[in-house]
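Late entry, magnesium ion complex.
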Amino acid sequence: MRLAIESSEGLSIAVSRISRVPFLLVALDFDGTLAPISDDPWSPRALPGSQLAIEVLSHRTDTEVAVISGRALAALDRVVDFPERVRLVGSHGGELQGIEPARLDSAEEELLEEIRGVLKAIATEFSGAEVEIKPAGTALHTRMLRSPEATEAARKSALARVGELDPQQRVTHRYGKEILEFTLRPADKGGAIQILRARSRADSVLFIGDDVTDEDGFAVLTEGDLGVKVGSGETSAEFRIEDPSEVEELLSALVRERSAFTRNP
Ligand SMILES: [Mg+2]
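Prediction complete; structure with ligand written out below:
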C-alpha cells in the first residue's frame, strides 16, 4: 500500500529533512489531529500509531514532544496517556505545565461568572449546545446543534449578550470548529510554540494541527520548520494531509527516519 505521505513527494522529503535536525521540537494538536473528533469530549484517544510514535520520540534526548490543545489542561490530561516527558499545553497555550498561569482579579472572576451564566442560559435555549469551563474563560460548543442556522443563532446570541456584560471589552472571543470561546487571558498556539522553541533551543519545529486556531501555530513557523494541516479548510501550512490516520503515518515515518539518521542518543 502506498502511504499517503509517500504520494506527496514534497512531504516525504520534508519529513526526511526535519528528521535530521540536531534538536527537534514536535508540537501536535490533539482533537482532530492525534485523535479522531468525537461528539463525546471524553472518548477521543490518540490513534495507536501516533501514541507509539510519541512514546518513542519522547524518549530521545534530541527531541521534545509537546501536545498543544485548545482544551483546558485538566481536560487534555483526562484523555491522554503519554510519558511524563511529553509536555502538555492547554487552553491554546494559556496553560503550560509547570508555569503558573496569570491570575484573574476579583472583578474579572465576577465577569467570568456572569459570562458562564449567560452561556449556560443559551445552552438551555439551544438544545445540544454545551458549556465548557476553562481556567480563564469559557466556551460554547455547538457540535450537537441540529442545524447550521441554530448554530449561527446561538453564536449571535452569545456574542450579543457577552457584549452587554462587558462594555469595556476585557473579554476576547475566538472561533474554532463548532466552538465559540471567550477568555480574559488570550493565548494562542503560536505563542506557545515560541515559548517551547526558546526553552528547548530547538533547531526546527514540526507542527501538525487541524483547526482554525492552529493557524496561529503555522504562522510562527519559519524556514527549516514544517507545518502540516489536517483536513479541509484554509491554511498557511506548507502541507496538507487528510485525517488522524495520516498523522499516524507521518509520525511513524518521522520515528523511522530519525532512528535511522542517528542512534537513539
Ligand atoms: Mg484540533
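The first helix runs from residue 4 to 7. Will revisit in the morning.
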